Amino acid sequence: xxxxxxxxxxxxxxxxxxxxxxxxxxxxxxxxxxxxxxxxxxxxxxxxxxxxxxxxxxxxxxxxxxxxxxxxxxxxxxxxxxxxxxxxxxxxxxxxxxxxxxxxxxxxxxxxxxxxxxxxxxxxxxxxxxxxxxxxxxxxxxxxxxxxxxxxxxxxxxxxxxxxxxxxxxxxxxxxxxxxxxxxxxxxxxxxxxxxxxxxxxxxxxxxxxxxxxxxxxxxxxxxxxxxxxxxxxxx
Length: 236
Known about the structure:
Elements: H1 7-17, E1 23-29, H2 30-35, H3 41-44, E2 51-56, H4 60-72, E3 78-82, H5 87-91, H6 102-115, E4 120-125, H7 134-144, E5 154-157, H8 179-188, E6 194-197, H9 203-209, E7 215-217, H10 220-224, H11 228-234
Parallel strand pairs: 1-2, 2-3, 3-4, 4-5, 5-6, 6-7
Helix pairs in contact: 4-6, 6-7
């Protein structure tokens, strides 16, 4: 989350729950990684086994170069953001708008996989605008999974987004959640680790979700109350 999962915030989460969970950085543009490679820790934080760097971009060469820099500096995993609907991100041709171009995402993944050995994962929505059928989502994921290395982890924000007419904040609440769509996809890709994201605020909800998928990404709840991690530690 931009301006939220900063190095200082991630450090706080490590203090609260250590290495128990995976923590995602803010989304960083590929060119920013390339330009600032001499001092990445200043705006990403130190490399840790459970910190995943989220990247934004659509140029295969630049994304591969950024991933290689991150690997060389000790970062353990990179995640391609295919879910952010902001106008600035759309104008750069990355984020959620890339769901309309699955072949571009696959080309980016292929270039990154050739450049690094660390996991390259994807976070996306259920769809964009009127492209919100299960068939569309299935085909998008199938294309992403058709590269030389199978997709090692997919994180699904369980709602679609509207690229025009809604702000990023509104896109986090107005399009309805559809957990069943995520669970249906998980059944179609049983070998692919899939995590669900969106609207989880209680530990019992998370536990029920984990009966159907491999992971659950928590955003706003932990942003508003970082000590919620302790509730999860205790299973309360």
